[in-house]
Specification:
The N and C termini lie far apart (about 80 Å). The relative contact order is 0.11. The protein is flat and about 85 Å long. The strands form 3 sheets. Strands 6, 7, 8, 9, 10, 11, 12, 13 and 14 form a 9-stranded antiparallel beta sheet that branches. Strands 1-2-3 form a 3-stranded antiparallel beta sheet, covered by helices on one side. By secondary structure, it is of the alpha+beta class. Helix 3 (about 80-95) runs antiparallel to helix 4 and helix 10 (about 225-245) runs antiparallel to helix 11 (about 255-280). Helix content is about 55%, strand content about 15%.
Amino acid sequence: MTAQVSVMAPQISHQKNCLFLAMGCIAFIVSAYWHDGSDLMAAWQTEEYSHGMVIPLIAVLLAWHRLTEVRPAIQPSWWGLLFLGISGILFLVAALAAFQTAAHYGFILALSGISIAFLGTKATKVITPALIYLFFAVPLPHLVYTTLSQDLQLFSSTMGVWFLDLVGISVYQEGNIIDLGGYKLQVVEACSGLRYLFPLISFSYLMAYLLEDKAWKRLIVFLSAIPITVFMNSLRIGIIGVTVNWWGIEMAEGFIHEFEGWVVFMICVLILLGEVMLLLKVGTGGRFHYEVFGPAHGSLFSSQLELTTPVIAATSMSAVLCVVFGMGIVNQREQVIPQHPPFSTFPKTLESWNGKQLTLEPDVLVGLQLSDYVLADYTSESEKSPVNFYIAYYDTQRVGSATHSPSSCIPGGGWQIADRSVQTIALPDNKSVTVSRFLIKQANVTQLVYFWFDERGRDITETSYAKWYMLVDSITMHRTDGALVRLVTPVANGENEADAEKRLQQFLSLAYPSIKTFIPGSSLPPT
């Protein structure tokens, strides 16, 4: 008996040490991710991603049940360090390019790396479905979200009009605006269906995983969330149109509007559950793992944790990530902050154009976290409409404080982007500038928008390129300063797009030299 105790005691000690190191690794990674994690928590407070807070709990349940079912052997692997290294690169991209999604993905890869280093590839393969499920808790990159929202708004509006025509209600559609004659309904971002799609597609993944049956059935369950959501959201818009036509605009506002949303979502869930039950009746041998929603029983592994070299290396690597990112070493490194004239001194007179200085609301300034800006309405006696001119400047860009694309903000303000393109504008002295051109509409108002990002001397129209050059310049130049330049003019009554285009181009030709004077370029004067 004494001999047995002496042999088991070191094993228990090794297990305790391994468990301690595993918890330490997770703590290090959480610390490295902490700053970006606050953004994830904020996203979980929104209706689109409110389901995100329960996904980690369900993922733990999935992993727990799967491990007790398979009981894999523990075989620590060096491959875990590769995943930790990739996660470190993603943390770095997030910090230097102000791209938070990279940090969210990096955190999940870091957890996977810890699992591989401590448990091995076979054991990690067993819990891979749970690790994949975590990705459904991560918000889409904002540009992807905005594009998807705009497409769904337009499609849902079109389908809603089709339903209204089907029941005999005369209706006219202009983009995402549904004209019922006495009332106009605007299908805004909140009605795009993403509030249903994101939680429902995560739920459909869970249902597909718990459905033990042929692969084609599981694939149908997972993918069906998309048509179910689009159809039901379009039907909801059609029903709102009917009720507004019968009882007034109050049917599209307040509690009734929100209640309709909840009812539609619950119907989507019931359709998905009904689909699973129906597929179980097709063929034989299928079953649904209801037991996953309760506690699991039995041991997790068929062998014991071991204090191996990959385990120690993974712990050390996690500690390095904690020091570099958790303690803010990357953000604390010295950055070059270029000098520039105060934007309050931007010329208010540009030949025949006279500018009236405007100010942003305090809450908007808090949200944008600008270093400096200019906002003004320029008018000319020879033009019917003004040009709204705006530069948002950041002397250093980081997560939560960086340029934002108008392609995200315009739909949020209730505007529909009727047309978008990239256009090169000829300027004096054989120069030119490439801009993003948007034609936007809201009710009976039409406006023309030019914008671009001025990033350390580069004029860029794509957000992805702006992020890439920010990453490169942050490493090579120790600079992340940059600006958004935006010009807007209405298409006035009696005008067409060509008139507004000519106005913006004329003003841009006059303003561009001053813009380049106020925004620091790639070459800075000696200090």
